[in-house]
Amino acid sequence: MATVLGIFALCTLLSGGASAYFWYQSSKVMIMPMEMDNGEMQPTSITSHPDEWLQAVYLGIEKSGGLNKKAATFTAIAVSLS
């Protein structure tokens, strides 16, 4: 019985750690469109290219949402195991 409880505790710890990792990664998603200027990558101006900024925001939200979904799944697993 102690072995089973230990396995559940370990699985809870691992899924909690995975959820924390995905929450952290979702908070670090960058929203910055870039363009090549004189051979170097430079941030795109929001006044000259607002459509690229909208696309970057959309893609950033989509990526962050995917990471949040994974984090929520691992959080649910951790809660159900505890």
UniProtKB/TrEMBL annotation:
<protein>
    <submittedName>
        <fullName>Uncharacterized protein</fullName>
    </submittedName>
</protein>
